[in-house]
Design goal:
The chain is α+β, with helices and mostly antiparallel strands. It has a single domain, classed as Gcn5-related N-acetyltransferase (GNAT) (Aminopeptidase, 3-Layer(aba) Sandwich), CATH 3.40.630.30. About 30% of the residues lie in helices and about 35% in strands. An eight-stranded mixed β-sheet has the order 1-2-3-4-5-6-8-7. Helix 4 crosses helix 5. The longest helix is centred in the middle third of the chain and has 15 residues. The chain is globular. It comes from Candidatus Abzuiibacterium crystallinum.
């Protein structure tokens, strides 16, 4: 376990589930693993990040931004077993007037992919958005071809609400972006089952 990881995951969790801890990231913590994720072309294939190189100073500014604003949060995703930092999740563009927000997630640790961690983290953040922040809807954008991410959101209950044609450029072609949404009433209905 790296020195920075110990600092970031030994704190009291902000949100937790059976297998995960979501915790606030700190800009002064060693973020070398996060930097390697955001610069990895495979990891950022379907993201706006990774088109240009990122530096530690960029990530520190990004994390500092989320610490200062009240319309979003950036949380590290760590496994309870081993306290390993495996990714990050955001709840951003929080719009209190219209009671909605966006969720974005990255599972940067390649060995942690395909294990349901993204789904579990999305569920935690969606529940927090509905039950603590009084939001009515959470949304996400998924690039065509990113089936793993689309499945993770759909397993939480998100539904495809629209499709933005030729909205994302990748590998010499324009791809569509799916807009997904989850309403609080639908989430609560799921919990009752």
């Amino acid at each position: 376990m790296g020195r920075g990881l110990a600092k970031s995951t030994m704190k009291t969790p902000f949100l937790e589930s059976k297998r995960l801890i979501l915790h606030a990231l700190k800009p002064e913590v060693d973020l070398c693993h996060y930097l390697s994720w955001i610069n990895d072309q495979e990891t950022t294939r379907f993201m706006g990040s990774g088109r240009f190189p990122n530096f530690l100073s960029d990530l520190k500014r990004y994390i500092s931004h989320y610490r200062q604003v009240k319309d979003g949060m950036l949380l590290g995703i760590a496994t309870k077993k081993g306290r390993k930092h495996i990714g990050n999740i955001t709840l951003h563009q929080i719009d209190n007037r219209n009671q909605l927000a966006e969720i974005g997630v990255i599972i940067g640790q390649k060995t942690a992919r395909g294990k349901g961690y993204a789904q579990e983290a999305i569920r935690l953040v969606a529940e927090h958005a509905f039950m603590r922040l009084n939001l009515n809807k959470v949304c996400a954008g998924i690039v065509e071809g990113n089936e793993a991410s689309k499945r993770a959101f759909e397993k939480v209950g998100f539904k495809v609400e629209g499709r933005l044609k030729h909205h994302f450029y990748l590998d010499n072609q324009f791809l569509d972006v799916f807009r997904l949404g989850l309403l609080r009433k639908d989430y609560v209905r799921q919990l009752a089952r």
